[in-house]
Structures are given as structure tokens and as C-alpha cells.
Design goal:
The chain has three helices and two strands, in the order ββααα. The chain has about 100 residues and is mainly α. Strands 1-2 form a two-stranded antiparallel sheet. A hairpin with a 7-residue loop joins strand 1 and strand 2. It is globular, with a radius of gyration of 16 Å.
Length: about 100
């Protein structure tokens, strides 16, 4: 059984200007990051790796104008790669 509260952020909210247009509370890349972390939590590393590939594609393509949050997004992508690597190589100790 699924908890409906998990889907609250995915709900479409009608925009003020047009009855048929919708806007979402989170960016698509944020939702993919959430799915990546969920995959890691579930130890489904193959899916998590594929989601990282999708995120990399989304975040590294050229956008005009340049997104002000791009640097933060790239840093999050690097941290996600590091998380997946550490989960796949738990025997490796750093520090």
C-alpha cells in the first residue's frame, strides 16, 4: 500500500492565467534526484545509475539563458555520483 503523502509534490496546480495550463511545485530534475536517492535507499543501484545518467544529460546540456542554479545542480550531481560509488564500494574507507 502506498502513502498518498509521497505524491503531494507531484500534483499539478492550475496556473492563474490559463485554466488548461498547469505548473508543478518541483523541477523535473529535482524529482529525478529524489528518485535517484530513493533507488539508493532501496539498494537498486542499477536504476540509480541510470537516473544519474539522465540527470547528467539534463544538467549538462546548454541552456539559454544560463540557469543561476546550474553550479549548485552540478555540485549535487557530483555528490550523487560519490554517494553511489560509496554504496557500491563499502569496503573502501577514506579518512
Amino acid at each position: 500500500m502506498t502513502d498518498d503523502s509521497d505524491f503531494d509534490d507531484d500534483a499539478a496546480v492550475p496556473s492563474r492565467g490559463a485554466a488548461t495550463a498547469t505548473r508543478y511545485t518541483r523541477r523535473l530534475s529535482d524529482k529525478v534526484f529524489i528518485a535517484f536517492h530513493h533507488g539508493c535507499d532501496q539498494e537498486d543501484f542499477e536504476v540509480a545509475e541510470r537516473l544519474l545518467g539522465i540527470l547528467e544529460q539534463m544538467l549538462t546540456r546548454r541552456t539559454v539563458p544560463v540557469d543561476a542554479n546550474r553550479r549548485k545542480a552540478i555540485e549535487s550531481l557530483v555528490a550523487a555520483h560519490e554517494r553511489l560509488w560509496h554504496l557500491r564500494h563499502p569496503e573502501q574507507k577514506f579518512g
